[in-house]
Request: fold
Amino acid sequence: MTVSGSSGRAKRSTTQAKAAEQMATKPQARRASEAGTSAVVKGFSHIPHGNTALSVKADEARLASITDEKERKRLKRLLRNRVSAQQARERKKAYLSSLEQQEDEKEHRMNELENRVRILERENQMLRQVIQTVTRKSVPANPQPGDFAV
Reply:
């Protein structure tokens, strides 16, 4: 049992070494090594791409050339995950954009309402002054019994 386990590890490390050699010649691997990131994991590039659609096409092409079924399934899963993650990022971006738009609209509406409140407060104050002025003029300081008609 231990013999098959150790040979399995040896086979995997040999596969990884071959993949590392293949990837070392690619420009992405050179850029990754210059950036200090790992670009080689069983021949699958984990470099963040600017355009996921292009990297998905490249991964699909790479997927078609792989004959090991286990590796093919792993790469398919990674590819689905990458596409799903990109879709989630796009949904999040759209959601945040809609929240920002709602915030702008509500802020604009609040400013309009605050202006309206200020106008109404001034109008209310003016009307109170008018009422106060009218009541002072119409009510004499010492009312006489005949001043008010009932």
In short: Residues 20 and 137 are 100 Å apart (CA to CA).
